[in-house]
Amino acid sequence: MTQASAAYALARLPIGFSFFGHGFVRIFKLQAFAESMAGGFEDTLFPTGLALGFAYVLPFLELVLGLSLILGAAMRRSSAAGVALVCILIFGSSFQENWSSIATQMFYGLYLSLLYLFADYNGYAVSPGRNAQRIRPGRGGNGSHPIGRDDNP
Fold this sequence. Notes:
mainly alpha; DoxX; membrane; Thiosulfate dehydrogenase [quinone] large subunit; transmembrane; 153 residues; transmembrane helix
């Protein structure tokens, strides 16, 4: 395993646990969470009923996405799904004029986009990337790519 593959696995874990944790705790208080989230849209142009329906689904999406990121499963699809989810959240936050939340959500989107970009380095995963095993100096890769270089003997 290269340093790049290990680094990718380490980068996957924080955001994966963040999504997983968001979903996990919300499932146990699903009705209160959904009603609270929908209540945040009462004074906006966004339909409260649509917000309520989405709020009942969101924790399950977060849980599954988080688990997928933690396990490193289908990272391109998982990170793209994560970006799509974040875009939906940004859209809703815009109706609430919650600009500080949007800044955080944009960071999540960027983070997930980088996971998408470097998915070939996905290592320590249920579905490793193409370069997770290949790019090793003297063992399948040419060692000239700085991300794929393993400087440890």
